[in-house]
Amino acid sequence: MKPLYLRSSGSFKRLLLLSIGHYRSPATKPPPSTDADTKESPEEPGSSPRRSSSSSRPAWRCFSYDEVHRATGGFHARNLVGRGGSSEVYRGELPDGRAVAVKRLLGASACERRERDFLAELGTVVHARHPNVCGLLGCCVDRDLYLVFDFSRRGSVAANLHGEASPAAMGWAVRHGIAVGTARGLEYLHKGCRRRIIHRDIKASNVLLTDDLQPQISDFGLAKWLPSEWTHRAIAPIEGTFGCLAPEYYTHGIVDEKTDVFAFGVFLLELVTGRKPVDGSHRSLLSWARPLLSDGKTEALVDPRLGGDYDVEQARRVAFVASLCVRAPATWRPSMTEVLELLEGGEIRQDRWAMPEAAASDEEQPWWFDDLDDDDDENEDEEFSTPSPSSSSSTTSN
To answer: Biased-composition ranges for Low complexity (predicted)?
Structure first.
């Protein structure tokens, strides 16, 4: 198989369009617009109207190698902002001054799996158009494989919540806004997007912040789309982040929307507590928080750095939603639509969420919530992770 960078630019661009469903031959009539198409491309205040989804032109473009090379200063080390096992991310600037993040895939240029992964990520992220999802600006297939995104100057939630460079603890109002905004983005991926997208790696380092502190879900390197007639997918090998993996995925490789719901529950706990999914002592946030959640001790959960400066009712609501999301039986977790409704003030009915006794017995601490072995790596919570494509944090993921 000839590597992408050796193929003609025109033929591969056509392949790109075909692979993600944007391309139509001139003789093909455009499909009628649908409500889903409208939902997929929301217009923001002050923005110019988007093209109709029936247009044959995609919302992204193909960059030349010279463009991405100049933008990143020749991929200079000073512009390296993220690195993972299969990619590295560089900060760049386009001629019009727009800051971008250029994600370069690593590995042998002729590796078919690398090319499949590139097309899979591209074919997933191009369908996502939402204020709380990091949008794709384009790609480059000259010489190598690159994805280009808007750059987040404020970095990730993890960098702001845990980073030593953060001047003070992130305030409660910001944390609550991040929780609701991220829920909106994830609910869109599950329900509002033309293709049902399972992210598979929801975590604080994969949620970026805009200049006005709005969250954007990023890094679709592990994402999978779920056809409408499917209830789940079986994935192998198991990939993701320690401390955030749902039990049915970790044990059986089964992923569906509830896999993301579980990870989102861990994300909510991280926002409330200010703790990482796995701390420096290799202790799981879930194993620490679960007894407190069961006893309703919200005050003991809240990040002490807030000094009591938080909305008590909001904190109780977020903790309650987190407790639903991290339930071991996937069928008893809420959907993201229900999560969003609860976070935005929907009525909390304890009887609605009470589990039968048989299901509740599964909530006893199973082995996948146990603390990690002491001889594991210091960054155990990131072993399976990939770098955020637009993060402005340090060269190692948070």
So the answer is: 44-57, 385-398
Of residues 226 and 386, more confidence is placed in 226
Indicate the SS3 state at residue 83. strand
Element (H, E) at 362: none
> In whole angstroms, how far apart are CA 56 and each of 24, 253, 378?
7, 37, 48
Q: How many CB atoms lie within 10 A of CB 212?
A: 7
Q: Report the SS3 class of residue 105.
A: strand
pLDDT number for residue 50:
39
Cite the active site residues. Answer: 201
How many other CB atoms are there within 10 angstroms of residue 371's CB atom? 15
Separation between Cα atoms, residue 234 and residue 286, nearest integer Å: 25
Per the annotation, binding residues for ATP are 103
Query: In whole angstroms, what is the distance from residue 325 CA to residue 204 CA?
Result: 16
Coil, strand or helix at 397: coil
Tokens of 155: 């970095």
In which residue are the tokens 């600006």 written? 137
What domains appear along the chain, each with residue ranges and CATH number?
59-151 (3.30.200.20), 154-369 (1.10.510.10)
CA 8 – CA 359 distance, rounded (Å): 57
